[in-house]
Amino acid sequence: MSEGVIAGSSAKGLMSEAFQTDGTAGLTAAATAYMANPNQKAEASSKFVDDVTIATDTPWNITVAIKATAGNGIPTGLNTQTITFTPNVQNAAPTAASKGAIDWACASDSNQTATSRGLASVVAGTLPAKYAPAECR
């Protein structure tokens, strides 16, 4: 599952830079450009990751779908289950008036860790929490 977190890192970097450069308009532009790439899924997938997508509008969450096959050791019932990363600025969803750095809330089918850290904007994934990294439970 750690490869799923790593796969989301490049998208998080893209989105964080876009926000610092151009606020929420930058988030929308970066997400739209990322998703418009015709090779996006092929470039995002690996032995353990099926896909990485970015929502093109608020809350601009990043979704990482896990690849579970008989050959990679992940129980096949988890195939395409997701973890999500949701941007927060000052512990809330970014708005046009938001200032500061992005903190990322990670969630599986649980968001207890993100919520306990005061992050209010969290989109739940579908991966059962017992399989997710502690940061995403």
From TrEMBL:
It comes from the Bacteria. Belongs to the N-Me-Phe pilin family. This is Pilin. It comes from Comamonas squillarum. The lineage of its organism: Bacteria, Pseudomonadati, Pseudomonadota, Betaproteobacteria, Burkholderiales.
